[in-house]
Write a structure and sequence with these properties.
Layout (H helix, E strand, L loop, with lengths): L3 E14 L4 E3 L3 E2 L3 E11 L4 E8 L18 E6 L2 E7 L7 E8 L5 E12 L1
Antiparallel strand pairs: 1-9, 2-8, 3-8, 4-7, 4-9, 5-6, 5-8
């Protein structure tokens, strides 16, 4: 019988994002995720949008969509300055994931992102 565990991993550690730039977190093997996840997000300036990306091999990345072609995997939109906010989002299950951070042409920022998720062992 599997045991439910809690993962807690920092995927971005004060990563700089220039005004209007796109940056990416480190990736994580995610095939043991049991479907529940939260991120802890910190941003020093600007306005950022954060989405989850998926990969089958850890090299080729995709922005997930549903059967209608609409984007899924949204974590935060127009997120502004925060010393730390927990955000629960709808996980898109995939063998590997990472997060895409897009600064909305407001101001350069530093971003930290920690993923907290439930997995089975």
């Amino acid at each position: 019988m599997a045991k439910s565990m809690l993962g807690n991993i920092k995927l971005m550690d004060v990563q700089a994002a220039a005004k209007a730039a796109t940056v990416y977190s480190s990736s994580i093997r995610f095939d043991a995720c049991a479907g529940d996840a939260t991120i802890f997000l910190v941003s020093t300036a600007g306005s950022i949008t954060v989405t989850q990306q998926c990969s089958l091999d850890g090299s080729n990345w995709y922005d997930p969509v549903n059967a209608s072609g609409s984007a899924v995997g949204s974590v935060a939109s127009a997120f502004t300055v925060s010393a730390g906010t927990y955000i629960t989002y709808t996980v898109v299950l995939a063998p590997y994931i990472r997060f895409k951070v897009v600064e909305g042409d407001v101001a350069a920022t530093d971003v930290s992102l920690k993923l907290i998720y439930r997995f089975e062992r």
